[in-house]
Structures are given as C-alpha cells and as structure tokens.
Amino acid sequence: MALVSDGAFIADEWRRLADEESLPGAGKVIVSLGRLPAALEDARLTALGVYVANTTDPKALAPHFSRLALIDIAFPAFTDGRGFSLARLLRREGFVGELRASGRLTPDQYLHAIGGGFDTIEIPDELAAHHGEANWAKARQARSLSYQRGVAGGASILERRRKGVA
Amino acid sequence: MTAHDPALPPRPNSAPTIYAYDEYDRAFVRERVAEFRGQVERRLAGALTEEEFRPFRLMNGLYLQLHAYMLRVAIPYGSLTSRQMRQLAYIADKWDKGYGHFTTRQNLQYNWPKLVDVPDILEALADVDMHAIQTSGNCIRNVTADHFAGVAADELEDPRPTAEFLRQWSSAHAEFSFLPRKFKIAVSGAEHDRAAIKIHDIGLRIVKNAEGEIGYEVIVGGGLGRTPFVGKLLREFLPRAQLLAYLEAILRVYNRFGRRDNKYKARIKILVHETGLDEIRAQVEAEFAAMDRAPFAYDAQELERVVAAFAPPAYEALPAHSDGFEKAKAENAEFAAFAAVNVAPHKVPGYAIVTVSLKPIGGIPGDATSAQMRALADATDTYGFGELRVSHEQNIILPHVKRDDLFALWRDLSAAGLATANAGLISDIISCPGLDYCSLATARSIPIAQAISERFADLERQRLIGKLGIKISGCINACGHHHVGAIGILGLEKKGVESYQITLGGDPTLSASIGELLGPGVSAEEVPDVIESLVQFYLAERRDGEAFIDTWRRLGHKRFKESARREGEDGSGI
C-alpha cells in the first residue's frame, strides 16, 4: 500500500490490523469498527485508528473521538462518493485527527478528498505506480479557486468576492 | 477573445442582460479546462484507463457514443448572447461537421468531436464565458429554467439569478461529484411552468408567502426514465436566504442513502419512493438543522450583483399596438400564421417573444447548422438586444423583439430557413437522438419524428389541430420525455425489430401527469397512421377551444383506446 500526503508518497507509520491478528504491545494500529471497543480498553497502544465502511453512522463514532487518532474510510469503488459526505460529517462532529481515504482513488479526486477534510489517501501499490507521485502532486494544485469553502486555497469564490481579494 | 477565433468581431451591443463572468468565474473555468487537458493527455498516453477516465470526461460533458465522442456544451438556464452563439457556430465548423444539436435540457451537443481536440474546444468556449462542466455524469447537472425568464407576463420573479447561484454552487462540488446517479435541477418563477419542474430531481418554484416574502416551493423526486414519477412537495416555502444550505442538505441525504446497487434505481425519485416522502423530509430537515450554514450566509450584495446582471435591456416606451405589425399580418398570410403560432406576449408593451422553430417539416428536431446559428445571432443583434434562449422544446427564443420589427425579423428568418410556423403544434416534436447516434438506444427516434412531421406537413391543418406535444424516446431512459408528451412514443426492440409504444395524456407542467399506454407496440411504418387516427378522433370529439390533452382528460383514456382499436380492427397491430 502507498500513502499520499500533501501531494507526495510518504511512509505509513500505521499498521492495519486484520481481525484475526492479535493486538500488538505498542505502536500505531488501525482496527476494524467491530474491534474498536476491545482495542479502546487496551492501554498499551500508543495510538489507535479505526477503519470504517462509508455507510457508518458518524454519530456512533463521535463518543470515541478523543481516543482516536485516525479514521480510515473505505472507498469500495472510486466512483462511490459516500466517503466524501462521511468525511465531512465526521469533521462536523468534531473529529480533529487524521482522516484517511482508502481505496482505488485517482489523483483526479484529490481536491474532492481535500475538500471533504481528508488528510491522507491510501492506495494499492500497483495503482500508485500506475498514476505516479508526480500526478498526485499536480492534481493537488489543479485548481486554485473553488465555489465551495475549503477545497482549493481555503476561501470560496464567494468569500473572496466579499473581501474583494484575488 | 483570443487567437482562437480571429473571425469573432467585438460586439459592443452584446446583451448586457445575461450574467457575465467576473474574474473568478473566468479563472475557475480556465483552470478546469487545463485540468481536463491534462486528463486527456494522460488518457491518450495510456496513463488513465478508459474506466478511470470515464467519470472525469463525463463531468466535462464528453460522452462516448455509437460512432464517436459527443460533447455536450452547457447553456446555463438556456440563456446565451449572439457572441456566444457565433462561437458555437465557429466550433461546429472548425471541429465538428458544421452543425449542432440543441437538447431538451437547453444544452448543445456536437456529435463528431475528436478526443484530442476537446480541450481546444473547451478553451474556445471559455473564450466566450462558456463551458461543458457537468452536462453529464453522476453529478449535479447544468441547471435549467423557464426559457421565457425575465420577459413572461405571468412571472413573479426572474428565475435566472437563482439558477446562476446554483450553477456556481454546484460547479466542481467536492462532495457531490460522485453521486449515485445524475441530478437535475430546474427553476421556474412564473405561474405557468415552462421548465417542467415536476419531472426533475429537484424542482424549484419561486413563490411569495403570506408576509410577501420571496422564497421557494421545493419539489423533489420527479423524473422520467424507466420508472417515471411526478415530483412531490418537500417544502412549501423555503426562505430565499436558505436555498443553498437546504439543497446541500438534500444532496447530502441523497449522496449517503441513494441506492448504488442498481443504476436504474439510483435516482433520488427511487429513494423518495422507497423511503417515503415524510421520512426523507425528516432526514433533510435534520441535516439542515445540524449543518454549518455559515458558508452559505445570505449575502445581499452578491444577490444584487447577480440580479443586476440580468437587468432588462433598454426597452423603448412603445404603444402596445403596432400598426406595421397588423398591416403586415393582413397582407401576408404566411407571416400572419407565424405571428399566431410563434409569437408570445411580452410583459413590456410594444414587445413580443419570438420562438424560432428548429423543427422544419421533415427535419431533425433541434439541429441547427452553423449558418443558422449565425443567422440567429445576426437576427438578435438586429432585433433582439443580442440575446437568445434555448427552450427545452429544442427551439430558440428571441426574448425581446419590437412588434414593429416582427415582419422584418420574419423575413430574415425565412431566408435562413428558420421561419417554420409550428411552435407548440404537432410537428414541434421533441425527440432524443435515438439509434442513429446513441449507444443506449433500442430504436430510431429521428426518422419517426420526420415521418410524423411529413404526414402533418400542412401547416394550416396543424393550426387547426392546435397545441399538441409529441415526444419521442428511442429507449426506456426517456431522454425524449415521452412520458410527458400529450402523445408519447417509445421505441423498443422486439426480436430484432423496432416496435413503438404509444402513450397518451402526459403533461410536463404544474398539472404534471405521466402518459398512459394505448396498447401493444406498432411498427415504425404504422406510427404516423396511429397518430393520424388519434388526431381524427380528437378533432371529431373536441369542444370549442379544447386542446388534445383536455379532450383526452374529459373523455378518458378508454375512449381513445377504443378508437385506436377500431382503426386496427382486432387491435393486434396497435
């Protein structure tokens, strides 16, 4: 798996744990939603993340935000946009940790992901090789203006008009 | 203007009456073109597979059709200037086959562009403040509105500023670009619905509440396709300031809960139908209450800016009556017929709204050659303040013509082959491209439209028959809106043979209804005969001033069905 952050491929400090694997004694691990209650009990972990389906109820996760350093939303297909709405709702509920999108996303969706509040994107290695790091870097700069807030350059076009700045 | 079109003359008299991009809009569209250029380059180099490229080409208006790519250009809410129309003609000549096709969603399609040329075409569109953004794909589509906006006598408020707000809000929306399915919004600000708001995913009707405040009636879940639904009332009155936030709430509910397991059940109409209107309303209201509405904060200054862009042109103070117009009608029967059929009342005395039919007898509905596009641009520069509209009936409107100028306009239109006096009549047929172009089609549509048009070629007879909408779709996806045709025709394929189902009683307006099936399908050759027999039955039965749909409503479907059966003897052929 490759991890995209700020337009570059970076090393992933997190380890995604399959349900049959036992919890390690330390380190950053990502567990399934089903395993989250048990993992939360385990004080040995330095940091805990959870991977969730894009149909997850954001309110069900909210009580655990203070203990969660990462939420990883699965994109079952790159054309399935539910994850973009879930990300936005998690941010609205107050999640401030790392938001990760995982699936076969393309660089062309990078601004959509950033707009939803995602920090990182996890893609299969062959897909990372197919699109290449340079295209992710380029896609991040594809647009400097957006009609929505927080997508490209922060302020929306409407807000820029109000301020009268370019 | 850039080097793209050296032939493009500056037009000092171009319409000041439609929204002109500001520096932000212009920069946004340029960036979008550059982004797509990069995607096309990657596709051509093999760095994007067709599967990966598909959603991105679609959200830039590019389809892969039966024979070639098709590019669908957005004409937001159907408004364009003469300068923009000339650029469309230029593109048709330079990169296509010298013509374009105006669609039921007020857009323009080019049927033969090459992939490698598309970024240049988009650049040429950007030169005149146009684009092809979101004319396709599972995103919020180009917003449509009443084609008589701003000039209709029955208007409460011009719907175009609202539609322009929606265009901006929905453009490259980060959250709503990968919806379960396409999403269409239409806006009407008048008493009569000319925007078919009840057959859209969301229909907005500008209304005034008891306190005299302007707001919106919100209709949701209408649509045609293989499961037609008339839209349902979601909110009786939504204050103007809350519009974008409320739409964001609807879209968020749809994006999260709309079905993705079956593309034919993925539209919001199915979600509303399966979940129930009350439950959907509760979900939307809950989301609306919970969301951060700050980004959508009401901005009176911005509203003023956009409204000002649609300011009416500098009308002259004229008497309502035009002697010249009356005299020309009395002297020229052909012009009188045109005036009776294609000219509508304008809210300003001394002016009229002119519909230019793109349905010549035996022609292809909605097609216009580049020469005709230029003729339309010239006509509106001379007689219409440089503005044009595209109607969802696939015709072109000159929204402000002096009554004194109508005869001169008509002569110019006649010379360009654009004076067919059939607006709203039986040969003003809405048709999808059908099997001649479309890879989804199961039957031909255009030849059926042409055959009916030729059968009823006599314009005097058409006037006698009166208002009658025929709509033809070449497959159950219903792009030709057959469900809401007073007479609807659906082309299907049965054992390798084209078969046409006929429905009666469809209505796209506020009294919306879905047509009812006449009987088993008929062959392509039989369609004109069946229409002929229905028309004859109607003419025999109608009362004074009654349109086809009214007679059908009064007599009931059964009587029409029986009449058709008699024609086909045992009914086997019908």
UniProtKB/TrEMBL annotation, chain A:
This is DUF934 domain-containing protein. It comes from Methylosinus sporium. The lineage of its organism: Bacteria, Pseudomonadati, Pseudomonadota, Alphaproteobacteria, Hyphomicrobiales.
From TrEMBL, chain B:
Residues 69-127, 364-415 form the Nitrite/Sulfite reductase ferredoxin-like domain. GO terms for molecular function: 4 iron, 4 sulfur cluster binding; heme binding; metal ion binding; oxidoreductase activity. The keyword Iron applies. It comes from Methylosinus sporium. InterPro entries: NIR_SIR_4Fe-4S (IPR051329), NiRdtase/SiRdtase_haem-b_fer (IPR005117), Nit/Sulf_reduc_fer-like_dom_sf (IPR036136), NO2/SO3_Rdtase_4Fe4S_dom (IPR006067), NO2/SO3_Rdtase_4Fe4S_sf (IPR045854). Pfam families: NIR_SIR, NIR_SIR_ferr. It comes from the Bacteria. Belongs to the nitrite and sulfite reductase 4Fe-4S domain family. The lineage of its organism: Bacteria, Pseudomonadati, Pseudomonadota, Alphaproteobacteria, Hyphomicrobiales. Residues 136-288, 428-564 form the Nitrite/sulphite reductase 4Fe-4S domain. Keywords: 4Fe-4S, Heme, Iron, Iron-sulfur, Metal-binding, Oxidoreductase. This is Sulfite reductase. The keyword Glycosyltransferase does not apply.
